[in-house]
Write a structure and sequence with these properties.
Order of helices and strands: HHHHEEHEEHHH
Radius of gyration: 18 Å
Strand order of the largest sheet: 1-2
Organism: Candidatus Desulfatibia vada
Number of domains: 1
Protein name: YkgJ family cysteine cluster protein
């Protein structure tokens, strides 16, 4: 299925119930993240390890559709600015890949430290930073220490169980239902910049 058709499917009113469910899952993520952040007294104020400079791949058509929905709420001038930025990031990333280098490029949605689609941001943007754990089939519980800024702060508290597993499971189940509803069976893998370039 082409990206153009994906866009049509994503904007179809039949998709609204799925995106509403996604908002509910996102709200639960935000609450759990904030609970963990409050426990540790952690506040993200930006750093050299800025997650907005990291190339994250997103694997759900749901997130693509939700970002597209948010994109349509912006005025045309802002949309054009973002698309130009996204195209530039994609070009520089491709060049870095060809040269075997790692590209650290600011997300095209980040304007002066503020995300232009903050309410529509993907899962990893909501969960990144704080120490967490994930239950993977056949691998047991895998713990991650969090981002560099989190790891370097002085902690005088025991580990707070921030389990991402339920959110991953809910997302996977909803994505499966969503793809069935819109008639998509191919795998999805895009960065935010790649998504924006198709809008």
């Amino acid at each position: 299925m082409s990206i153009a058709l994906l866009k049509i499917q994503a904007l179809n009113t039949a998709c609204a119930p799925f995106l509403n469910q996604l908002k509910t899952i996102y709200a639960a993520m935000d609450r759990k993240y904030q609970e963990a952040a409050d426990y540790y007294g952690f506040k993200c104020t930006g750093c050299e390890d800025n997650c907005c400079l990291t190339r994250f791949y997103h694997h759900t058509l749901l997130e693509y559709s939700f970002i597209l929905k948010g994109f349509t709420t912006l005025d045309k001038e802002k949309q054009n600015q973002i698309k130009q930025r996204a195209a530039k990031v994609c070009r520089k990333t491709a060049l870095a890949d060809e040269q075997g280098e790692t590209a650290r490029l600011m997300c095209p949605l980040n304007f002066n430290g503020l995300c232009q689609l903050y309410a529509f941001r993907p899962m990893i943007c909501r969960l990144f930073g704080i120490a967490h754990e994930l239950q993977q089939p056949g691998m047991g519980v895998i713990r991650h220490p969090g981002c560099e800024a989190f790891s370097e702060q002085p902690l005088d508290k025991s580990y707070f169980k921030f389990d991402r597993t339920p959110f991953f499971v809910e997302m996977a189940m909803l994505e499966k239902e969503f793809k069935q509803a819109v008639g998509v069976n191919q795998k999805f893998k895009m960065t935010v910049s790649e998504m924006l370039e198709t809008f």
